[in-house]
Specification:
This is EamA family transporter. By secondary structure, this protein is an all-alpha fold. The chain contains 15 helices and no strands. It has one domain. The radius of gyration is 20 Å and the shape is globular.
């Protein structure tokens, strides 16, 4: 598959090909970049929320709450008649996407940010666009265009500069102990593992988006993820000090569950139907950018000149990726909703 604005997809069935696209389909086909950027913005802000919550409750318990909230919100999609139409191959892809993109990613990222600094995690997540590009080339045979390579380079350079300007990027700053250093290295390794999982998720989601509706993919993957997380989560729930949880904590839990499991997932699956996997990978640079913006707006952090320059570089890469190629038109995939 070539990295162009017109994605190559599997041939639709005659019925699907004749289906008239809805207004929502046309909106996402016209503005897929906005959907992808907004999805990753939700993910970025949730990094900060996750770091706040794992300080007051076990990681597994917080992760299980994410899936419980998602399953409740998506309950109307669990119709047996619809689930029976999903093929064995599609269930296999759904499991792979769930295992890497929701279950394992959630655990690795939450445990990682608990053991290392947000700055270090941001530097590592800056490698995500490059990781997606490599996997899409290896798995989907998407040969990157020059514009895609430039946009990836700009996004990575911007995020790297952004995080380099925020101080210590190696873990527990100021501790100076060997235990803190080893813990930071382990945390960095866990975040890197989460980056690889997210890249796998991007690749698999590109294939599934052409076969199933975005909301059904969201519902099925979180149902599978909830089952996978249940054994670990039950143990974690019994260790929670519920007297220490404020109404604000519960509000963050609900928002995290909806934003991470429903809003960002749905937007991503709808947007990626209309661009290549490599191009979609560029928008993952919004994760550390959004995390920094969250700190400035809600945590009172100051934005330096270097940080502003870094944001400008990253946004330039995203804008470059969003521009349509000359003489090309986006192809609207047949609706599956």
């Amino acid at each position: 598959m070539n990295s162009t604005s017109t994605p190559q997809t599997s041939s639709p069935t005659p019925a699907a090909a004749n289906a008239a696209p809805t207004g929502t389909d046309r909106l996402f086909a016209r503005f897929p970049s906005f959907a992808l950027a907004l999805a990753m913005t939700f993910v970025g802000t949730n990094v900060g929320i996750g770091k706040t919550m794992v300080a007051v409750m076990p990681v597994a318990a917080f992760a299980l709450w994410r899936f419980v909230i998602a399953i409740i919100a998506l309950a109307p999609r669990y119709r047996p008649s619809s689930m029976r139409r999903v093929t064995r191959s599609q269930w296999g892809h759904l499991f792979v996407q769930t295992f890497f993109g929701t279950f394992l990613f959630t655990l690795l990222m939450l445990y990682g940010v608990r053991m290392t600094t947000a700055t270090a995690a941001g530097v590592i997540t800056a490698t995500l666009p490059a990781c997606v590009a490599l996997l899409s080339w290896a798995v989907l045979r998407e040969h990157p265009s020059r514009r895609t390579l430039v946009s990836i380079a700009l996004a990575i350079a911007g995020v790297a500069l952004l995080n380099a300007s925020r101080g210590d990027a190696h873990g527990a700053a100021g501790s100076g102990t060997s235990d803190a250093t080893s813990g930071a290295w382990l945390g960095n390794a866990l975040v890197l593992g989460a980056v690889v999982c997210e890249a796998i998720y991007v690749i698999v989601s590109k294939r599934l988006a052409a076969e199933l509706s975005a909301i059904d993919i969201c519902a099925y993957t979180h149902l599978i993820g909830g089952v996978l997380m249940l054994p670990l989560g039950i143990v974690g729930l019994m260790a929670v000090d519920y007297s220490a949880l404020t109404p604000g904590h519960w509000a963050l839990i609900v928002w995290y569950g909806l934003a991470a499991s429903v809003f960002s997932f749905f937007l991503w699956m709808r947007g990626i139907r209309h661009v290549s996997a490599q191009l979609a990978g560029v928008f993952t640079a919004m994760v550390p950018v959004a995390a920094t913006a969250y700190g400035v707006i809600f945590l009172g952090e100051r934005l330096s000149v270097a940080q502003g320059s870094a944001l400008a570089l990253t946004v330039a890469g995203i804008v470059l990726a969003a521009l349509p190629s000359a003489g090309s038109r986006k192809t609207l995939l047949p609706t599956r909703d």
